[in-house]
Amino acid sequence: MLKATMEKSPAYNRVLLKISGEALMGEQNYGIDLSVAQAVAEEIKAVRDSGVEIAVVVGGGNIFRGVSKSAGNMDRGAADYIGMLATVMNAVVLQDALEKLGVFTRAMSAIEIPQLAEPFIRRRAIRHLEKKRVVIFAAGTGNPYFTTDSAAALRALEIKADVLLKATKVDGIYTDDPMLNPTAERYDVITYQEVLEKNLKVMDASAISLCRDNKLPMVVFNMKTQGNIRRVVMGEEGICTKVVATL
After folding, report:
1. Using one digit for the tens of pLDDT, what is the confidence trace for 162-202?
2. Which CATH number applies to 14-244: 3.40.50.360, 3.40.1160.10, 3.90.190.20, 3.40.50.720?
3. In sequence order, what are the residues at sequence separation of 6 or more whose Cβ sits closer than 8 angstroms to the Cβ of residue 191?
């Protein structure tokens, strides 16, 4: 007698994925590796195909960062706006990669650039998600002095996401930098307050506080491991750190 096997249901219905601009560089020192963008798009498609509504916030550090050495002695506000434009470039590249896979995608920008992206309107973004379109949020919050981490926290709350997925180079949050300290231990679960008190550099303090105050859970995982985006969406443990308001 054949036994019917049912795949595990996703742990979340609507997620926001934060991807750094540097993740799109691949092994390059600058710019966008289109093969990496394609691989990321394939993972996002797998999540969407599992029935999960997914939005993405993409950074721009692979092109320009307002607080980097490349900004020199530029005015901070002007430098941050240039960084926002870099995120728009990354969003358009990722949108193109997704559409080549047959995934309906909408890029939405906090800075009005109608030739490239729709203006960000919260209700319209939610409607796109309800129609199973992937939504890519670009240009941060549209304001200088705010990072794309803060933008990710803000957009996740605005679209009422179940979780904020923070893609990094390591499989979670550690007691110390695991690249420098091989004895560092990974947290399975940690509170936002502990992250702030221990000064664990996972996101900037503004983003952490915003998530904590609004009780938005966050999952920190290694994006370089193929298939991990879908794994964390399915609720797989042991490959990430979950950050919560209270234990």
Report:
1. 999 999 989 999 999 888 898 999 999 999 999 999 999 88
2. 3.40.1160.10
3. 212, 243, 244, 245, 246, 247
